[in-house]
Amino acid sequence: MKVSALISAVAVALLPAVVQAANEVPAPYPYPEPAWSPYLVGGLIGALVLFTLSLASKKVGASSAYSDGAGLIGRVVAPRHIASLPYYRESKPMIGWTLVFVIGAIVGSCVAAWTGGELNGAYLQDLWVARFGADSFVLRTVFALSGGALMAFGARMAGGCTSGHGISGTLQLAVSSWISVICFFVGGIAVALMLYRL
Q: Which of 23, 5, 25, 3 is nearest to 13 (CA)?
């Protein structure tokens, strides 16, 4: 309990510095003003991790939210099948910490895009249109859904997602998380180079 109080006190003490850094947008910054400062967002994510670890003994992560969500839907659509699966017998699907975290991340990203002037209603990004054309709506949808499915599958195999390994795991100096984060970046760069042929 003393460690939790110490972590919380440090996080609160650092908050003014984080807020001050919020106005210091690096130059050249690729987004038009008034985009949120990466310093502010990074500081807030760090504070979130410290608070959740110290006050709730929870790690920031999202991958189990998808299995919970699938299990909750499955209990409505095919309850006998869900009840027969060993995973759901061990981990009952519920509206828990990670599901609320994912919903909050979706709502929060919409608020950030709206307040940062980045919510323009465009489905295709300029870089995508330049590479694949303005009529590539279906291709973009297939890529997005396939990428999301592969990401969720990989996260369950790896025992954590980008937020679980990249934020909580690296903060705790977990070797497996550092290896995962390196692989995230290497894989992302390789796919971007192949996809956009930069």
A: 5
